[in-house]
Sequence to fold (454 residues):
Amino acid sequence: MQIKLKLFSIAKDLAGFDEKVVEVSQGSVAEDVLESLIRSNAKFVDWKKSLRYAVNLEYVHGDFRLKDGDEVAVIPPVSGG
Amino acid sequence: MQIKLKLFSIAKDLAGFDEKVVEVSQGSVAEDVLESLIRSNAKFVDWKKSLRYAVNLEYVHGDFRLKDGDEVAVIPPVSGG
Amino acid sequence: MVQLTKNRIETEEVLRSVIAPESGAVNVFVGTTRNHSNGRRVTSLEYEAYEPMAVKMMERVVREAQGRWDVSRISVVHRIGKVNIGESSVVIAVSSPHRDEAFQACRFLIDRLKQVVPIWKREFFEDGSSEWSLQSHEQETATQAG
Amino acid sequence: MVQLTKNRIETEEVLRSVIAPESGAVNVFVGTTRNHSNGRRVTSLEYEAYEPMAVKMMERVVREAQGRWDVSRISVVHRIGKVNIGESSVVIAVSSPHRDEAFQACRFLIDRLKQVVPIWKREFFEDGSSEWSLQSHEQETATQAG
Fold:
């Protein structure tokens, strides 16, 4: 199945892109997207603990089960205000 | 000796004036000005407890000793803000 | 900036007066005139001040706040004279490097202003009558000298 | 009013958007950009947002505040894109019949916004370099679903 992966801030800089349609296997959960990011840039390992995930504009835990067509965002520590 | 008496808000309305030079006897204290005001309008009796006094732009207790030339203000409950 | 003014208060200007390059947090309190008072419809208001003492007391509460919190700049502007419904009667702005201190100092300032600054509000009602708004003095905490 | 904007935030306009004839107290929080960060001189900033989610989260924290305090109107406006030093990055305004509730709700809103709204600040330094400002997530209190 396919998801739309969205990256922001430091995650975007590390990956070198801000949006990509990604093929993921059935049963994938939100934090699985990190594995492919780590393959593209090993520095993502250091960020593992401080990244959060949002699916379809809603924060989710790492074990949130994805479905086809989801928009999955990797959310580094926010710094608005 | 003479003081300058200044009235505001409800005190001004009750007395019918906002400023007057008043002759007071030596040894007068701030709240003594109320006595002459009560003579001019008995309604000042009802206000006695809620009035405060300022001498030369500074809050004082009722027993504050006046001196010649003081500016004495009668301060009804404030309602700024 | 501590000021009494007969003109509309420009919030943007008061805000600008406290912005400091090292202070990222600004808290602003704005008092606006309400259309009712104790169930009666208010059509306009008038503020009277014992002007030199009001300015002196506003400056004093500003110094009190500066002594208690790590704040950068403080401005207090109070309107006097006639004020229409929905217009600002007072604007207090506090900048600080820390938002917590900006909030606390601003809260303190409006509370103290309402206790000690000699300004009086007269409310005008639909029927043409008017009344001085008279809360009782909050004596316990008020500045007393003498 | 909940809004992301690429333009300067007009404080007066945000204030006007919350003024209600029955609510005399307005508390406003303004975040302004600072000229330093961890001892380094900052020359300008840029805010990036995950726009649809940022708006959704801003609306959510507004609803949370409305559920907890007796407030009349709330506006939250956050700047995105390039922001010069001393300009406002965020303006939050809360009107209420009670000043205590206006202060508390406004304080809550800026705290929650900094926790959950997906907006990121990039600071540009004198030497031309830039860095994302990265505090750690305040996970305990952040909104989590799923």
About this structure: The mean pLDDT of chain A is 97. Chain A touches chain D through 24 residues (CB under 8 Å). Residues 2-75 of chain A form a domain with the Ubiquitin-like (UB roll) fold (CATH 3.10.20.30). Chain A has one domain: 2-75.
